[in-house]
Amino acid sequence: MDTFTLKVVATNRVFYDGPCQMLVIPAIDGEKGIMAHHEDMVIAVEIGELRLQKPDGEWLHAVVSRGFAQVSHNRVTMLVLSAERPEEIDVRRAEEAKERAQEQLRQKQSLEEYHISQASLARAMARLKEASKFRPRV
């Protein structure tokens, strides 16, 4: 299967840099799938699950924050605020962030503060959802 070059850059690190067979990005209007030789475009990335398939067939899962992805000449560059694998997620910290965001949403806020709280809640929920998929059940 053909591959394309993928680079996922978060604010604190280069999350992935290498060949990719298929990429699934969380976008405003749903998930976008990208394969080799995809048409050129720019995609607004939303908070959610990122999935990429390496050339050996292995799937890599991650939670990403908002950002952008540029598809151009069989190359994809993603710039996001954060990207983390499920095993990197601190579930306790994500639960606390969720509770903080929910409390902030219950309080009277300006429109800007409301949107920030809403984004914090969405990020915490995405992290918890992804972490629960890959944690062993007891």
Automatic annotation (TrEMBL):
Pfam families: ATP-synt_DE, ATP-synt_DE_N
InterPro entries the UniProt entry points to: ATP_F1_dsu/esu_C_sf (IPR036794), ATP_synth_F1_dsu/esu (IPR001469), ATP_synth_F1_dsu/esu_N (IPR020546), ATP_synth_F1_esu_C (IPR020547), ATPsynth_dsu/esu_N (IPR036771)
Annotated localization: Cell membrane
Topology in the lipid bilayer: Peripheral membrane protein
Ranges of residues in domain ATP synthase F1 complex delta/epsilon subunit N-terminal: 4-83
Gene Ontology terms: cellular component: plasma membrane; proton-transporting ATP synthase complex
Domain ATP synthase epsilon subunit C-terminal: 87-129
Domain of life: Bacteria
Keyword list, A-Z: ATP synthesis, Cell membrane, CF(1), Hydrogen ion transport, Ion transport, Membrane, Transport
MF terms (GO), sorted A to Z: ATP binding; proton-transporting ATP synthase activity, rotational mechanism
HAMAP family: ATP_synth_epsil_bac
Function, as annotated: Produces ATP from ADP in the presence of a proton gradient across the membrane.
PANTHER family: ATP SYNTHASE DELTA/EPSILON CHAIN, ATP SYNTHASE EPSILON CHAIN, CHLOROPLASTIC
Complex formation: F-type ATPases have 2 components, CF(1) - the catalytic core - and CF(0) - the membrane proton channel. CF(1) has five subunits: alpha(3), beta(3), gamma(1), delta(1), epsilon(1). CF(0) has three main subunits: a, b and c.
Family note: Belongs to the ATPase epsilon chain family.
Protein name as annotated: ATP synthase epsilon chain
